[in-house]
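Interim report, section 4.2 (structural modelling).
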Amino acid sequence: MLNVQGMNAGYGPVEVLHEVTLEVHRGEIVSLIGANGAGKSTMLRCISRIHGSRSQSLTFEGIDLHSLPPHEVVARGVSHVPEGRRIFPRLTVRENLEMGAYRRNDVAAIAKDLAHVHELFPILHTRAKQMGGTLSGGEQQMLAIGRALMSSPRLLMMDEPSMGIAPILVARIFAAIKQLRSEGMTILLVEQNANAALKLADRGYVLETGRITLSGTGAQLLADKRVQDAYLGE
Amino acid sequence: MAMESQPSMWVDVFMQQLTTGLSNGMIIALIAIGYTMVYGIIELINFAHGDLCTLGSFLALTLVGLLGMDAWTGLPGVGGVVLLLVSCALFCASLNWVIDRVFYRPLRQAPKLTLLVSAIGCSFILVNVALFWGGIPMEVFGGGVAAAAPKDFPALVSDENLLGATAKMSFTMSDLLVVCVTLPLMVALTMLIRFTRLGKAMRAVAQNPTAASLMGIDVDRVIGATFLIGGAIGGFASVIYALYNNTISFQMGYRTGMDAFTAAVLGGIGSMPGAVVGGLLIGVARALSDGYIEARWTNSVVFGILILTLVFRPSGLLGAKLRDKV
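Predicted structure of the assembly:
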């Protein structure tokens, strides 16, 4: 479904990604784990085209994403929940969700997706008229995920959904990710919380200083000595 | 002299200054909206905006001359004013869009200061276009002999006092025109920004352009639309300015622009209601300064307000306390 081959990217003269190759198949949860600064976020930013990259191949469902501006990538079915949530603080919760559906005109289907998001995160319904900026960190994360779902994506990319969030809300967000998968959503998950991310994942990749050093099924990586030493503690 | 000491006389004079101030303030507010919209969305003080309005006024005078509009009375006269409003709004809207496309869009990723220099350069170009325009040998431009001289703008709208010829205060057709143009425009703009898809997209882009593009919003297109709308409002302002003040000059954009910029900063730059409140306050401050201090001090009063605002309340009266970027 998503095919990245030999991706290189950087900030100015600093190379952050070196020849990264990664694949996501339909219906999978793929986790990308790695230390701070390994290039995980940059990877997602390159796929959604808000950051420039050079790759041998960057395709989604056979469509070359390289030639597309970011707003066209969304229209092709790839939705990105950015690091740090990036909700619109002075738009209401409801308006934030509407922005997610910006490219769509199918009123009935949008209403259905809105109901689905509300069912997944009831708090977004309760707080519909509040400004996004007044939500707690965890609620903002739910809003960011809900907003991304409103574009009706076929691939959902999530960047650190557990970062800086109360444990109880983290559990709820991971439960939501599980539910989305059971509904057939394909997910590319970037996480520092490697344990939770790999438990959830069908497959995983380990990114170290811009290179993929390990890959395998979630269970394989969880059992891997190197992963345990570097990312799981104990 | 004896009359002046009577309190009722004092009140009349004050009320008159207030009326004039509010009318001018509404015009300033319209121009301030153009500054604040652009600042809100790309954090640029668009110094070319006042000069854009100058060109709008020049177009209006050209049309008046070409069509012999000063001879139109009654219904054609009203139609003429509407024609001026519509054509100048369209002209300023398109020109503002082109300015963004040519001067600002190539610099989207550049440092903000580069953008600002580009805006100042653009302002110079527009001023000189206006100077050239004033030299066109048309009767309304004084036959084109003194390009830089202020041009009389014919009083297309009667200055008959609507409150009756003997009333102590005057509220003329021009005052009414100002109210009838600005209020609906402000209401329409507020509705557009609050409730329409484009308006919400404009707010989203202003708050976080990257996130907006992740929502599928074509950021450059939304910015272009912002220039289009701000330009159109400036176009309306340019016509009512000319009709209200009856004189235009190639440099007026600088002064009016400064008034409007001060209004935008005073109200809180980036805030639409702030631009309106700031505009009205600056208009009234100008009128009071003209009436009670001396007209030659008025610009100093306006700059004084600008400086005091920047020092003591840089976020303005209604501006957001903190920018929640990043």
